[in-house]
Amino acid sequence: MTDTATTADTTIEELDTVAQRATDAAAGWSQTSPRERAAALVAAADALQGNADELIGIAADETGLSTARLTGELKRTAVQLRLFADVVVDGGYLDVRIDEADPDFVLGPRPDLRRFLVPVGPVLNFAASNFPFAFSIAGGDTAAALAAGCPVVVKAHQGHPRLSERTTEVVAEALESAGAPAGTLQVIFGRDAGVTLLKDERIKAGSFTGSIKAGRILADIAAARHAPIPFYGELGSVNPAFVTPAGLAEESDAIATGFVTSVAGSAGQLCTKPGFLFLPAEHGLGEIITSEAQKVPEHRMLYPGIARGYAQRRDAILSTRGITVLAEGTLRFDDEGQAWATPTIVSVTADQLEKHRENLLDEAFGPLAIVVEYTDEDELAPVADDLFEGNLTGTVHAGSGEDSEALRSLVRWLEGHTGRVLFGGWPTGVAVTPAMQHGGPYPATSNDAGTSVGTAAISRFMRAVTYQGAPQSLLPAPLRDDNPWGVPQQRAAAGESSDWGSAAS
Questions:
Q1: Is 73 a catalytic residue?
Q2: 421-448: average pLDDT
Q3: Considering only CA atoms, which of 218, 211, 207, 158 is closest in space to residue 365?
Q4: Which of 62, 73, 150, 234 is catalytic?
Q5: Of 7, 151, 408, 444, whose CB neighbour count within 10 A is largest?
Q6: How confident is the model at residue 2 (pLDDT cuts 50, 70, 90)?
Q7: Residue of 309, 262, 258 lying closest to 129 (CA atoms)
Q8: Strand, coil or helix: what is 369?
Q9: Is 369 found in the same domain as 315?
Q10: Quick one: 255 and 296 in the same domain?
Q11: Residues 159 and 291 in one domain
Q12: Spatial contact of 128 and 139, defined as CB atoms under 8 Å apart
């Protein structure tokens, strides 16, 4: 029994060729003008949508996700590429800063200084299992790195190898037809191949979406290299949601139905699934949660490895003393190891969660969640601080106009421990938009200095360079006074330093 269709792992000799092709492509791709690079990204988006029927068919066969879900995800992937095309043309992401030469600078004569961001070089992206388009070959990490001017090598996920191969063909052909150098986008197969390439000095940054265990291993490899490289891993998150008594009084039924819908979507195989819902004791939502969960039809899990891991976590939780089962759910395996699941939801008190934290707190990647009953709203922030590490999201359902010290304390805790704080709604569903933050403190990510969704994602694959006293003819285009690319330039004029500090008065 295997987890995937057979796909040959990339050999050592092939890896060397891949790394060299990416290195050779780096200079040309990084030097493309904004409009040329943007046009290539748009061409890739067009190619994805032009081949949508074929790609979605392969994805549905390999992952078990619905055609409707995959159609929306492919559209999201194309939109993301188009968004980054506009980011590239705008040029603000280059963060150009120019300090004019100033003989009267308050600390002594200042030379002409010009700073901007440049691509780091070839990026290795480890694709995710649960988003075969949006976090895979042409997904967010790839789009951000390509937009930054970095060639990308994607280590395909074993859960959808045929889709990975075909998507690479479609997107790479589109990029190269639009002028990108050969080798701007490539794919490799096999876990050992991914580890080997991550150690290759020609790779200058890494990105990953997957488990805490695998992500931490890769992050440590990246850090242990002779020349350590940045590694942006999205690892694990339980995304706690909190309902205040006032919030419960206003929207009890909607909270129950919305919670079950969020837990059950895509068989719970989403990094933003709310794994814990804190409700006031005697909330009265048990019956509606049970009823809504029992209405959910079974959904195939992504691949056998995911299903086996979910089965272990589900068994551990269901066997924990003191839990109340609201919806036992089902998990059915076939002869090939594929599995189909319906939601499992249990309830515990806050004290029981603390007592059995070793069994209950770890992420269950599948349609399972835990309702936690609390008695004192003032204890929400302290309890959360005791139980949870970093998360991608945290959600608050409060009453209209509610403003208490307990609520403020909870919000402050969420700001310090999550990347996205939601008021109302549910965290599943991540908008592809400039203000989105999809990241968070460890273990949500290995490096919370960036985001894997939204336009700020581009900064992860860039580094700063300053030119000092350089002649105009040798300056990169974004730093020149004639500004041929038309990018935003932040200038510090000569003579300003004598007034520093006056803005505070």
A1: no
A2: 96
A3: 211
A4: 234
A5: 151
A6: very low
A7: 309
A8: strand
A9: yes
A10: yes
A11: no
A12: yes
Kindly report, residue by residue over 299-314, the tens digit of the pLDDT. 999 999 999 999 999 9
Q: pLDDT for 17-63, tens place per residue?
A: 999 999 999 999 999 999 999 999 999 999 999 999 999 999 999 99
Question: Which of these is catalytic: 62, 73, 150, 271?
Answer: 271
Whole-angstrom distance, CA of residue 374 vs CA of residue 348: 9
**pLDDT for 4 beyond 80:** no
Number of domains in the chain: 2
Instruction: Find all residues with CB under 8 Å of 121, minimum gap 6, and list them.
Output: 23, 26, 150, 151, 202, 203, 204, 205
Joined tokens for residue 213: 């265990």
At residue 413, does pLDDT exceed 90? yes
CATH of the domain at 339: 3.40.309.10
**pTM for this model (two decimals):** 0.95
Q: Is 389 a catalytic residue?
A: no
The helix/strand/coil state of 496 is: helix
Q: Is the CB of residue 168 less than 8 Å from the CB of residue 187?
A: yes
Residue 3 has pLDDT above 60, yes or no: no
Question: Is 487 a member of any domain?
Answer: no
Query: How many beta carbons lie within 10 A of that of residue 245, not counting itself?
Result: 16
Per-residue pLDDT, 7 = 78
pLDDT of residue 6: 57
Same domain, 251 and 155: no
Distance CA 273, CA 263 (A): 6
Q: Read off the pLDDT of each residue in 164-169 and give the average, rounded to a whole number.
A: 98
3-state secondary structure labels for all residues of 399-434: CCCCCCHHHHHHHHHHHHHEEEEEECCCCCCCCCCC
Q: Compute how many other C-beta atoms are within 10 angstroms of the C-beta atom of residue 193.
A: 20
What average pLDDT does the segment 390-403 reach?
97
Residue 302 located in a structural domain: yes
CB 363 within 8 A of CB 237: yes
Dist CA 155 CA 187 (whole Å)? 6
Average pLDDT, the chain: 96
Give the pLDDT score at 505.
80
101 in the same domain as 205: yes
